[in-house]
Write a structure and sequence with these properties.
The chain is an all-alpha fold. It is built from six helices and two strands, in the order H-H-H-H-E-H-E-H. The chain has a two-stranded antiparallel ribbon. InterPro entries: Get1, Get1_fungi, Helix_hairpin_bin_sf. GO terms for molecular function: protein-membrane adaptor activity.
Length: 185
């Protein structure tokens, strides 16, 4: 079993990355990968792609025809375009519903595996000392704060360690972004 110190740090790092990369970007990537697999929505996604290409093709063809000079041909292409758009919208609506369900499921799994796990760990190990500080290094009231809420006095609680890890991850992230920005110029 990995150390609880390491588990809390990795969990904070994962939370920071998810919050900064963006959950919607991750959801969109996973949705595309999900549709590449043999899933119930994969056929609908292929139909949607084909329908979208057909709409674009008909729109370009319609734009290439003069409505005044060749009205009959333009009207025929226009009717085909309107039918293709209606078919595309119908397929798109059903896929949007499936994608919303997929996103809701992913959001729930993400919350349970990150924030829910963090809260569970904090509740479960609230009375456990993660590590001890030597006696006399800090005043008594600081020992009480570091052990907050219920860890033994003179120790570091999981809640304080969680806050420290979150702060360190945020600081390192800011440093990396600043170095990246300076190097890009």
């Amino acid at each position: 079993m990995p150390s609880l110190l390491l588990v809390v740090f990795v969990l904070q790092l994962a939370l920071h990355l998810l919050n900064n990369v963006g959950a919607s970007s991750v959801n969109q990537l996973l949705w595309v990968l999900y549709n590449k697999l043999p899933t119930p929505t994969a056929a609908g996604a292929k139909k949607q792609t084909i329908a979208k290409r057909e709409v674009i093709r008909l729109k370009r063809e319609m734009a290439g025809i003069s409505a005044q000079d060749d009205f009959a041909r333009w009207a025929k292409v226009r009717r085909q375009h309107d039918k293709a758009v209606a078919d595309f919208e119908k397929i798109d609506a059903s896929l949007r519903t499936a994608q919303n369900t997929f996103n809701t499921t992913l959001t729930t799994v993400r919350w349970v595996s990150t924030t829910g796990l963090r809260y569970t760990l904090q509740f479960w190990y609230t009375k456990r000392a993660l590590f001890w500080i030597p006696r006399g290094w800090v005043p008594g009231y600081v020992e009480w704060i570091l052990a907050f809420p219920r860890a033994p006095r003179g120790s570091i609680s999981i809640n304080v360690w969680d806050v420290a890890c979150a702060s360190c991850v945020a600081l390192v992230s800011e440093v990396v972004l600043a170095v990246w920005a300076l190097a890009a110029k």
